Amino acid sequence: MANTALTRKRIEQLLGECDAFDDEMSAWQAPGTELSDSAIRDVQLRYAEWLGRALAVLDEGSRGKFNQLYEGTMFKPGIKGFLSNPLAPSPLYNPAEPSALISAWQFPFKAVRESLAGQRHILAQAMSQTSSISNVLDELADYFSRLGDYIATLQRHRKPGVPAPLIDDEADLQALVDALLRLQYRDVRAEDAVSQHAGGSSRVDFLLRESGVVVETKMTRPSLKDKNVGAELLVDWGRYPRHPECKAIFALIYDPKRLLKNPAGIEEDLTDVVGGVPTRAIVVH
């Protein structure tokens, strides 16, 4: 999948840059090191830009933890304090009576290294989660890509006088998708309300609880074609990430009468459009 592959590539780059920051900063407080203001400023700027990119690939819960490691606490200095003045002496340190318990620096790099390691761990977890979610999205895309064939087969093998399943509207589509999801996944939550968690009014059509993938269905009609389908999905997708269990979004767009002029373009446009939340959309006939 394009967007999750891109996210993994971004995280890989972020991890490499994190290691580089560790190497650079670790030398600053070493004995005999000469450190210029311009060198400090360069790392400050690069780290600030790196921090923004890192937060963009993380989910809401991870962002808070990640940013706290940057900000620090009253009892444990963070990366922010260190970068502001890495050579600030500690007011508690007495060079005449050195102690292993008291650092010579107000912001010792040892604590900063722990914070950088914490940020690296969060990014590594995001990488692992992205790979797992990518597999689920690929499974869903492959599974539902044959939905039209499935419906046609049921209609072809119906007994005389027994009506075949008809998908006349979105409610019919949701009922069929609900049944099919339960063949594949154990814990399927239908119409889980975002409002329970975020004060909104949206409902996700389905939530695959084990993976955190939200599944949304759309069925085209004369008043719901290319532009409107994308617009409706984007409005909902702006709300769904506030659901605490939403880790990715999958959209099934059913277009039995081939009303969409550019289905491939819709699939591409609805890829990787929600910051930090992988997305996937497929159009089936």
Question: Can you give a write-up of this model?
Answer:
It is built from 10 helices and 5 strands; from the N terminus they run αααααααβαββαβαβ. Strand 2 (203-208) and strand 3 form a beta hairpin. Helix content is 53%, strand content 11%. The longest helix has 36 residues, at 109-144. 28% of the residues are buried. The radius of gyration is 26 Å and the shape is elongated. The chain folds into 2 domains: 2-128; 145-284, Trna Endonuclease, Chain: A, domain 1 (3-Layer(aba) Sandwich). It has a 5-stranded mixed sheet, sandwiched between helices. It is α/β, with parallel strands linked by helices and 285 residues long.
Fraction of helical residues: 40-55%
- Oligomer status: single chain
Span of the ends, CA to CA = 21 Å
- Total number of beta strands: 5
Report the CATH C-level class of the largest domain: Alpha Beta
Q: Strand percentage, roughly?
A: 5-15%
Number of helices: 10
Q: Give me the secondary-structure category.
A: alpha/beta
Based on Cα principal axes, name the global outline.
elongated
